[in-house]
Amino acid sequence: MTQGCVLALTDEPLADSVTLTGDTAAISLMATPPQHQRRGVGRALLSQVIDDYRRRGVTRFHLGATEAGRPLYASLGFELVAESPVWVLERSG
Fold first, then answer.
1. At CA 25, angle to CA 63 and CA 18, rounded to 5?
2. How much is the pTM?
3. DSSP-derived 3-state class of residue 60
4. Residue 8 and residue 86: Cα distance in Å, rounded?
5. What pLDDT is recorded for position 84?
6. Burial of 80 (0-12, 13-18, 19+ CB in 10 A)
7. What's the alpha-carbon Rg for the chain, to the nearest Å?
């Protein structure tokens, strides 16, 4: 398993973390500051990451999405296959 991180700097950083296992890449921590959303910045970053990893032989990508990110991922061809539960442990006392 290898990991990589992509960072694009505008007036605030945009980040993307990729974990590679065989021919599958897990994309996590995709973050676009609100003032850059819906302007093509996240699409450009994610498209570049996908293209780069495809050149390296990756054939499958998966990621988790917030509601805000779902339209972007769907437009790039990602399909929803499961809803993931989120577990939280609050600090007590």
1. 75
2. 0.74
3. strand
4. 28
5. 81
6. exposed
7. 14
Per-residue tokens: 77: 């061809």
With vertex at residue 66, the alpha carbon angle to CA 5 and CA 14, rounded to the nearest 5 degrees, is: 35
Q: How big is the chain, counted in residues?
A: 93
The terminus-to-terminus CA distance of the chain in angstroms comes to 39
The one-digit pLDDT tens for each residue of the chain (93 residues) are: 555 555 554 555 455 678 888 999 988 877 777 777 888 888 888 898 899 889 989 999 998 888 888 898 999 999 999 888 878 889 876
Q: Are the CB atoms for 27 and 62 separated by under 8 Å?
A: yes
CA-CA distances (angstroms) from residue 26 to 18, 59, 79, 93? 6, 11, 14, 36
Q: How far apart are CA 2 and CA 18, in angstroms?
A: 8
